[in-house]
Amino acid sequence: MTPTERTLKKLRADGYLAVVVEHWNHFASVRQDLFGFIDVLAIRGKRTLGVQATTAPNVAARLNKAMALPELRTWLEAGNAFEVWGWRKGVRGAKALRRVGVAPEFTASGVTLHRDEI
Fold first, then answer.
1. Predicted pLDDT at 94
2. Going by DSSP bridges, is the β-strand pair 47-55/81-87 parallel, antiparallel, or unpaired?
3. d(CA 15, CA 1)
4. Secondary structure of the chain as H, E, C letters
5. How far, in Å, CA of 89 to CA of 23, rounded?
6. pLDDT tens digits for the chain (118 residues)?
7. How would you list the strands of the sheet with 47-55, edge to edge?
8. Which residues contact 37 (CB under 8 A, 6 or more apart)?
9. Domain boundaries of the chain, sorted by first residue
10. How far apart are CA 5 and CA 28, in angstroms?
11. pLDDT for the residue numbered 117
């Protein structure tokens, strides 16, 4: 099962309406994420969550990539949430998933992004 499939299964089990928003760009021969950093979009109640699904060893790289994009700041300023979910192969249960979120801190001088282990 791919990280995206595992993410969809977990989100749906947790009561989210979830859909894959990354797609294959045939002309460029690359996968493209929504806004450059979201693989799965999930909604539950008033919460909208964008998830980058990957393997556990790639969490830091995916997080660094997303945090460098101005689109992430816009996404968070709009009141949405973002997390990187890293899945460990061959592991089940709670230890299979590493979740890291990005939390905005709003100050008079602007917005600062912080990483939060979940």
1. 76
2. parallel
3. 20
4. CCHHHHHHHHHHHCCCEEEECCEEECCCCEEECECCCECEEEEECCEEEEEEEEEHHHHHHHHHHHHCCHHHHHHHHCCCEEEEEEECCCCCHHHHEEEEEEEEEEECCEEEEEEEEC
5. 23
6. 899 999 999 999 999 999 999 988 888 888 899 999 999 999 999 999 999 999 999 999 999 999 999 999 999 999 999 999 999 988 888 788 999 998 877 776 777 888 888 7
7. 17-20, 40-44, 47-55, 81-87, 97-107, 110-117
8. 50, 52, 62, 65, 66, 69, 71, 72, 82
9. 3-25+38-117
10. 24
11. 80
| Tokens 């990187």 -> residue | 84
Put residue 42 in one of left, alpha, beta given phi > 0 → left and psi -120 to 50 → alpha. Answer: beta
Q: What top-level class would CATH report for the domain 3-25+38-117? A: alpha beta
Q: What is the pTM of this model?
A: 0.90
